[in-house]
Amino acid sequence: MERRHNHERALGALTYWKALQARSYAYPYFHPPNLFAVDPCVVKPYYVPGTFIPIYVGGNIEIHDVSGGRVKSEGSETKEFILANFLPGGYKKRWGFHHYRAIWAPSEKHLECANIHPTFRFEKSVPLSQIYAESETFSPLNIPVQQAKIYFPDQVKVEKVLANAKYYWDEEQHLLTHADTGNAIEVARDPLSTPLYTNIMTYGGPAERVIEFPGESLIKTIGYMEKFVLARCYYANCIHLFGKATNTLTRLVRFYHDNDNTYALLGTEHLSQATVFEFSLKHLFERIPDILQEDEILQNDLRMQYVLLQLYESVLYQQTPLDSTYDIDGLYQLLVALDYWVRQTGRAENLKELFDQETPDIELLLQELIPNSNETRLRLAGYDPARREDLISLLTENHALFEDIFNRAFDINELEAFCRRTLCATLEKTIQVWLQQFFGSAGDGLTYWQESDGETMTFYAYDRYQGGSGIAKELFRKFQGISPELFDVRKALEQSLLCDVNITESIIHDLFRVYDPEFLAAGFNGLDSDQDTILRLALEKFERQYGFNLHAKKREDLLAFCKIDINRLVSSEDIAAFYSELIRGYTDILKKLHRTPTTIDLLLYCSGDMFYDPRATAAFEKYRTRKKGDLSELVVRIEEMMPSCINGCPECIEISSSYGQDLFESTLLNKRLLARLLEVQ
Amino acid sequence: MDFTSIEDLQKLWTHPCTPEVAKSNREAVKYQIIKYVEDRNADDINRGDYDCFVSLKNIINHLTKNHGSLITSLFIDMKGSPTAPSPETVTWIIATCVQELVDEQYLLYIYDRQRVRSRIAELVRYLSYLKQRFDEDYTASPGLAHMVKLEVKSRLRPRRDIPLVRAIRTLSMVKNAVQIDENIRPFLQKNSRDSLISFRSMVENRFNKKHNEINLSSFQLRGFQELFQAAISKDFSSEILSYIIQSSTGSGKTEAFLFPILLYALLTQEKRGTKAILVYPRIDLCNDQLQRLIEYVYAVNATLQNPIRIGIHHGKTEDLPLKCPHQGCSGSLQAGPNGFVCCDDATHTVNFVVKKTATADIIITTPDSLHRRLMDREGKLNIWNKQILPKYIVFDEAHIYTNQSGMHVANIVRRLRHKIRHSGGSEPIFIASSATVGKPKEFCCNLFSTEDAKVICPNEVELEEMGREYIVFLKATHPRKILLSPEASQEEQTNYTIATNLSAMIQTAFCFFHTMLKTSEKNRIIGFVDSIDIIKRLGEKLCDAERNRRLYQLRTPDARLETSRNRQCPHVGCRSLPPNPYINRCQTYLDGECWWVMQETDDRPMSIQIHKSGTTQDCAGGQPNSEEWDMMITTSALEVGFDHPGIIGTFQYMAPMNIPGFIQRIGRGGRSPADMPIAVVVLGSRPIDNFYFHHTSFLTNPHDSKLEIPIDPENRYIKAMHITSFIYDYISTRYAIEVLDQVYYQVDTEETLSLIEQTEENLLIDICQTFNLRYDVAKQELHMIKQYFASCSEPLRVEDPTSKYYCTVRYLKNKTTVDDIIDRLNRIAY
Prior knowledge:
The complex is a heterodimer.
Chain A: H1 2-22, H2 32-38, E1 60-65, E2 72-78, H3 79-86, E3 91-93, E4 99-102, E5 105-106, E6 113-115, E7 120-127, H4 128-131, E8 137-138, E9 143-144, E10 148-160, E11 167-170, E12 175-177, E13 184-187, E14 192-203, E15 209-212, E16 219-242, E17 248-257, E18 262-280, H5 282-294, H6 296-318, H7 328-344, H8 351-356, H9 362-369, H10 388-397, H11 399-409, H12 412-438, E19 446-453, E20 456-463, H13 471-480, H14 489-497, H15 500-514, H16 517-524, H17 528-546, H18 552-567, H19 573-593, H20 599-608, H21 614-625, H22 634-641, H23 671-678
Parallel strand pairs in A: 1-10, 6-17, 10-18
Antiparallel strand pairs in A: 1-2, 3-4, 4-10, 5-6, 7-10, 8-9, 11-12, 11-13, 14-16, 15-16, 16-17, 16-18, 17-18, 18-20, 19-20
Helix pairs in contact in A: 5-12, 5-23, 6-7, 9-10, 12-14, 15-17, 15-18, 16-19, 17-18, 19-20, 19-21, 20-22
Chain B: H1 6-14, H2 19-46, E1 54-55, H3 56-66, H4 68-79, H5 87-103, E2 107-109, E3 115-118, H6 119-128, E4 145-158, E5 160-163, H7 164-177, H8 185-207, E6 215-217, H9 218-232, E7 241-246, H10 253-267, E8 276-279, H11 283-301, E9 310-313, E10 322-323, E11 332-336, E12 339-342, E13 349-350, E14 353-354, E15 362-365, H12 367-373, H13 377-384, E16 392-396, H14 403-422, E17 429-434, H15 440-448, E18 452-456, E19 463-476, E20 480-483, E21 496-499, H16 501-515, E22 524-528, H17 532-548, H18 558-561, H19 587-590, E23 608-612, E24 615-618, E25 631-634, E26 647-653, H20 659-666, E27 678-683, H21 687-694, H22 697-700, H23 716-734, H24 737-745, H25 749-758, H26 760-771, H27 775-791, E28 795-797, E29 800-804, H28 805-809, H29 818-829
Parallel strand pairs in B: 7-17, 7-18, 8-15, 8-16, 9-14, 9-15, 16-17, 19-27, 22-25, 22-26, 23-25, 26-27
Antiparallel strand pairs in B: 1-3, 2-3, 4-19, 5-6, 10-11, 11-12, 12-13, 20-21, 23-24, 28-29
């Protein structure tokens, strides 16, 4: 043991001296910051840092540029960033602004995979089965656990891409190449990529100290882990290929280690310290059926969210019904439009009923929604009659898939399962906001992760810096100062959900419902005191309606924000009239369809329903007809008054992760569901 | 009431009785016209009327009603007698002002001479019609801008109305307001007058103006007085009070702390030692500040017996990019054996810039280097073992010190305070400076561990409206593939174009450059992008669009410029004002495909450079000429401290990653108070872009909470690192240089441990005081550190007691070589 320990110490110093020898230096040096940096026996944080440039969780990775057969070091960079951009299939302009890709080649052992053996140098590899025992397969790609290893790289080899390089996608081999393989599709440029990963906690030990919360509390315990290790496992790279003659394609590149003949996951290790929260979700889960029954609008909204998630998962993992995730939004909006249309015209009760029909008349519906003759309805959102046939084929040829998706969406058990998943994802984001509020802005130094096991959710708040820097410990220390008996986590989470944007939008909608557009335009283009009076009354009404009692400071902030926000909507009588009519439409749709209206719904409403106010009609015509290129401004104008904080927004719980953003993170957020379950507003 | 004829009015206009006052009042009337037109235009644009205008009649009504007294004053200045102007005269004056604004290109007549549009509204109009064009036919070109918004804000700047001489005079009063530190009293008695004269010369040289032409703003004077007073006061305590200077970008924060520093350095010039340390978060910023300081002291140093020496301490001092400070010289400085020499004229020398191996009066450094100077030989010999020790410690651009880096700085400050106090210095003054810090007092108290902090900033009444700034928000269309020739047969249908968010940015960038109002000095744009990859791609594509394809020429106003570049130009009569849709209709102009305001000088491709930290290229990938650029595209690397006076436009591509950073970015434009900068924000199709487009106030009027800087100075983990480092600070302070050499350079951990043990009680007391720790906690921390040092004496080979770890891995000058060490370690490792 001692010999090994000494060997590691010698090796650490040897690496330092060899690196120094390899580069030109004025004189040799080895000062205390170097001593503490190379010695593995240093007990952090008792060391002298050489620099204060932070190293983020996951650590750094060395970059070796091997272009033209010569090796040149490009220093080291954050490993998560490099993996997010240079997994096989990833291209970036980076060092010296040159265009790079990592060295990788198709696997000779496994079709549709990239051999990552030549791409990286690995500091270690671990059989997946050693740290993952939850199931026989891993990730949505069902990688067999027994035949997979996690490889932790510490060096990546990259090479410059030729300026005139061509890009081909071989659909058969499922691989991107720079040479035409015969079966390949030429793509217009290098692909864009999004890495796909899953986290596994590899070391979390028992929490050192634990605060227990009594009885029925949502939060059961808060503990602290001095050592917390999480493996982020990248299992595929999702690439988007811009076909020259074809549509954009979204494809996955998976990894294989040819020398080991094993499925490969690329791993980074987050070494940190964590404050751990254990939540009991039993009570919340139990309430889901009641809430869905009580709140039809919420139920329908969640159903549509579920449909969107299904579309993402189908395209990503089954490559159907669309070629690319980029096209999902357009398809989803078309489905929303169909829902509106079939219900307004009495053709069906809902989309399930539509797709349950053996041969629904999709063609007729789409002819109505995207007419040839008039620039109206979906044509105002950029749906071109020239593409209508493609859309008809898409819906008819994939009839079975849509039928299945809508059947599942209307299956209450499936919907409840989706609600449980949504609840966990939303709660995770809400806790993040709460901790940032609770801990002050120092909470920015933390990163978060949660895992759910049945009715228990464990939430980890860990230091953003590799090895930890005491932030999680300070957070735990702050919790040690609270009294578990008196602490009300629901109230705390309620504050996190209470979003200025959300409140402002509700107040503005209410103002439009209550007052005439002339009054609003005159009031908000007139005296400040009149504006304040109108807004104060509206805010008081809001507080009474929802049982809030806002702090004076918060109230003033909201008034200021409301004033700015409403001013853009009532700057003249015609625009106020237009938005007033839209709010009327919004309320109508909400009542009739029992779901939160979207921009597409409002667009169809505008196209079909005559406005009462001629000024609104004139404004609508102006936005509809005034072309800027191939598009009108109408859709963005409608978006101006659409609430942007329905399920969450960047001002409250919609927080994006830094690298490798989740493709469909937002489809799993619903703050109204959480609020209803927590019995808060 | 006057009855002046038009001819007489014209004469009075050209030759007013009180020309200076009349000129200033005339400018004031013109400014009110611009304001009114721009505000009306902005309202119209924001409700979708991009072809907006304001009638002359409305302008006259508005000015008569709201600024009648100003017009009356102007008329009186013209006429030289107190006569009220008749309504006809008022109309004539306003119409003449409008005509002048049209001539100066701030306004343009629209369709006839009865309506005007502001220049910024015309630019927004072009942006709103932006299409992806590659050739002469635009009928099938996809639109790139879904919607555009314009926010016009008044630019409030601290009024500079205090003559430099008066400011200097008030400093003498400062001496009477405090009990003077006995160490400083002799200098005040002996050197005050000469120092003030030298200081005045420094400022004159730097601004290239006579002292009576130089004015300060009140907050600068307050900073000058407060900070100078603190420096000479006997009672000042760095634990009780610190300072933060906070004002908008380009308002003169640096002078607020630099003036007292320069004066203090001049006052105490005969005492060798460091009087101030200026800390910058990045090396580029250190170098910029060095250039500025060189310009201050260059000329005056030649007259001083003890020239002011400036130290530059950071990791890349070998190749400093410095310009010759000699008045009128545009050469650059090259390092030579005796300092820096101008490459254009060898008589221009700078020999007062020194590195870490020499003593300097003012040191410019980074937190990393300062941390080392607290421990090492260079610090001990050249900073801390001197007759005079640093008085001013300034952390400029302090908003960068968030989270972990803020915690480190907070602990460096503690160590620095200890070092100065125990090296015999008087109380240091800690100063932070930034344009974007929310809750500045709390931030300052946390960063500097002080009970209170004084915020030195302009009061509302000290601000004056210096002009306007414009923020344009452009919502790009969703990326989509467009068939360019829909009428083509099935086989031919391969003529697609993809309109992406980047396409919108490219067309916006060159529309912005070729149509914005430029002068010979104010004509550059800096663009910010949050990805190196996108910078390069944007740079390449812009380069291709500008240099190879010259796409901007497709929108040339051919009829006006008498060129033949825009095949769509129908050559209707539009030389003096844009074509009237009813009289001389021009569909090209109506479609936004004629950029009517383009001048002959705009008809050249712009020179584009791309920059990231440490690398600048021209957009074709070649070596750039440092000054020859029209557009610079960069990352956050230039978001702080990059002050180019020629920048009048900025752009941001996609939603910014953080709001303080965005404020800094748009603050790079319009560094002169009279500038009217334009910022264009191109928002894409991501949800966050949508969010900001529909809630622009989050970017233009951010709440204070968005600018708060998170720091936790009590974080024990970070503290532990600094307590470990403090052992070396302590040894450097308390022991001879030989001991420091042994401990620090020879890494003699055995000796280090022995010193700790010998002086443990005193060391613990110092740790407790410095880091505000309880004795038992400090003891526990020290125990951990001692354990480590003890482990360094363990042999690496069990059988060889001489193979102590630290002895095996260290380097001993003249006794060992790197090869020896590697040999030794190889034998153990393998």
